[in-house]
Amino acid sequence: MLKVPCNMLNDQIQAITQCGFMGRGSILTCGHQRNAVVLDSGSGFGSLNKGPIMAVVSNWIVGSGTGSGSGTLADRLTEDGLSYKEIFIVRCYEVGINKTATIETIANLLQEVGCNHAQSLGFSTDGFATTPTMRKLHLIWVIARMHIEIYKYPAWNEVVEIETWFQGEGRIGTRRDWILKDYATDQVIGRATSKWVMMNQDTRRLQKVSDDVRDDYLVYCPREPRLAIPEENSNSLRRIPKLEDTAENFKRGLVPRRADLDMNQHVNNVTNIGWVMESLPQEVIDSHELQAITLDYRRECHHNDVVDSLTSVDAKAVSKIEGTNYGSTAATENKEDLRQFLHLLRVSGDGLEINRGRTEWRKKHAR
């Protein structure tokens, strides 16, 4: 991928502006973010061919202004301020054996956008979106369930737009949803939803959401419920049974690396997704690709835990996903092409549950 050194920046700006790729008043500044591209209503990107230019601007932040600074996180809020959008380029180190982004890459991007959204609203990043009231009471959000559906995996150097928003979930917590789009075509390529509960950071006990905490964040939530994945007939709500020692496939002795720890000093939830994959049969990895994953998070995993990953065929699974993927059922029309599995991550020795999971796999098609 083309990288533009800072001392060449002015020449690049002039060349791009002369070609009409950028609207008036747009600037490029050296950015510190991984691969985000920030677009605003004045950037003029809406009608251009979105492919070639990204090779030039992928390492820069695009904003509007008259000369100082880059676009801020707040600039990425949608017009009504109730959701947040960010654009990413898939890097070569984020793709796997299929030459497309891995599910871990997708999950990391979802987490990145969610954290950036919270930061854009002025929430703290030291405890993942803690509000002022939560910080006073030593409260943090922890994930309880994550469900991701991928209809088409982006390939290396393709551009993905991710929109996210959050809303209340009764007295027990909140939910955050995402929609992923192919930026070049505006096609929806994935959806995700998650549920979060509140925990006391000192006691590690769950706590109900108080009115004071709700008042902190409800002003930023959609006025009416907005669900990326409608819950009627949705696999995102299906109960996940516990696997026992009779599971068909095992991977024992998985050990967290230091790099796997997050800001809350426990193993990042994306690491758990990778561990789930470790016990899948190789023939499934070779012949199929993941189309949906659901994880229930049962306990924290710490740096000194040793983890076992268990996988078995989901014998009670329905023949295909219904009602959740908005017309993308073509990938699963053939019942023989769909494989479904149950998963368990547990602490070695005492058997304490870390995660229960369910995955759905469709037959790979030639790219």
UniProtKB/TrEMBL annotation:
Keywords: Chloroplast, Fatty acid biosynthesis, Fatty acid metabolism, Hydrolase, Lipid biosynthesis, Lipid metabolism, Plastid, Transit peptide. It is found in: Plastid, Chloroplast. The gene is LOC115987131. Residues 82-217 form the Acyl-ACP thioesterase N-terminal hotdog domain. The lineage of its organism: Eukaryota, Viridiplantae, Streptophyta, Embryophyta, Tracheophyta. One of its GO terms (molecular function) is fatty acyl-[ACP] hydrolase activity. It holds the Pfam family Acyl-ACP_TE_C. Residues 245-363 form the Acyl-ACP thioesterase-like C-terminal domain. Belongs to the acyl-ACP thioesterase family. Its EC number is 3.1.2.-. It comes from Quercus lobata (Valley oak). This is Acyl-[acyl-carrier-protein] hydrolase.
